[in-house]
Amino acid sequence: MLLAATLPTTSAASEGPAVIATISLGPNVDATAFALAVNPNTNKTYVTPGLEPLGCESHIVSVIDNRTNTVLAPITVGLSPFGVAVNPKTNKIYVANAGGAICTDESSNTVSVIGGSTDAVQKTITLNGIGPAFVAVNSKTNKLYVTMSGGCCTDGNTVAIIDGSTDTVLGYVDVDLNPFMVAVDPRTNLVYMTHGGQDKITVIDGSTDTVKATFSIGGEAREIAFDSNGNVLHVAARNTNQLAVVDARTNTLVQTIPVGRRPHGVLFNPDNGRIYVTNRGSCDSTPGTVSVIDSGTRTVVATVQVGSCPRFLDRNPRTGLLYVPNAFTSRSVSVIQDND
Q: CA angle, corner 239, sides to 238 and 241, nearest 5?
């Protein structure tokens, strides 16, 4: 079950992490920023609204030209585009269409495939089950993993596996109820997923596509990020306001780091060894924040204020810039530069 363009403003770059631009998604009430993914090949960002539009459910993905920080023409996909992922090796963007929850309970069972060179939908993949939530790509094996959450009104318990070379379904893995976030470590070929409303993370072995283990972190998990070696997992613990540090070799919790209220998104920067955690707060007009953590000392070294209700961020590895989606009244994307 799912849990429920104008010119940008810019500022001068400074030492340390700072917002250097805020990109409004414009007057279209169907456009807001729940999750996003950066395509380093084209230097574009693809922004999904999730279940956050000001009106009813949306069918659009917003596209940002990162060179100019301007919003391009939107892409029409399925009902309630939710999770989004880019495969830079194939130049494809995958969008999970979660289905209705605001003005309709219409279900969805599709993933839209967008070509990065044309920004047009190339194919729509139909899945068994309903409520595709998040999608993750293993760029080494060219396989995709999609959590089937059950949508607004039922419980899901499967993960769909897609062959990225043909964009066809290979099969399904049965997991516990309400699989939500999903992350793949190409170095270890392990797939990790969180479960909505539960203190549980499931690990799938990507070589056999079978469940290898489950473990807990002491709170309901959101996004997962890996360190440079794949030995450490960084997990947002939503209801304890912490970042959980997990030994990936044993799946044991080794430390928790206090962050802001309601942490959701997590990103590890291999260039500076820092971890960035979005703290969505109460999702009202109060600005959210990004906690910046030194992975060596495991301490918060900075807190950056962004727009309201920030969630699932991404980074362009070629420019080093971070992109943070802001929902609710902000309906924007914050661009963060970290010179340290």
A: 70
Residues with Cβ within 8 Å of 208's Cβ and at least 6 positions away in sequence, in order, are none
Give me the residue spans of the domains in the chain. Answer: 19-338
> DSSP secondary-structure letter at 274?
E
Q: What is the pLDDT of residues 224-239, one digit of tens each?
A: 999 998 899 999 999 9
Contact 273, 283 (CB under 8 A): no
C-alpha closest to that of 42 among 70, 64, 24: 64
110: nearest Cα among 146, 152, 57, 62? 146
The encoded tokens of residue 124 equal: 């729509």
The pTM (predicted TM-score) of the whole model is 0.95
Domain 19-338 superfamily per CATH: YVTN repeat-like/Quinoprotein amine dehydrogenase (2.130.10.10)
CA angle 340, 335, 294 (to 5 degrees): 30
Q: Count the alpha carbons within 13 Å of 57 in the hemisphere toward its beta carbon.
A: 23
Nearest one of 169, 4, 216, 9 to 99, comparing CA atoms = 4
Find tokens 């956050």 and name the residue. Answer: 52
Q: Record the tokens describing residue 9, joined without a space.
A: 């403003």
Residue with tokens 């079950």: 1
Distance of CA 22 to the CA centre of its chain: 19
Residues 314, 167, 175: CA angle, nearest 5 degrees? 70
Report pLDDT digits (tens) over 80-99: 999 999 999 999 999 999 99
**Terminal alpha carbon distance of the chain:** 40
Give the pLDDT score at 47. 98
Query: Position 37: which residue type?
Result: A
Write down the number of H helices and E strands in the chain: 0, 30
Report d(CA 305, CA 288) in Å as an integer.
6
Residue 6's pLDDT is 39
As a whole number of Å, the CA-based R_g of the chain is: 18
Can you read off the two tokens belonging to residue 140? 């080494």
C-beta neighbour count of 121 within 10 angstroms: 17
Element (H, E) at 330: none
pLDDT confidence of residue 106 = 85
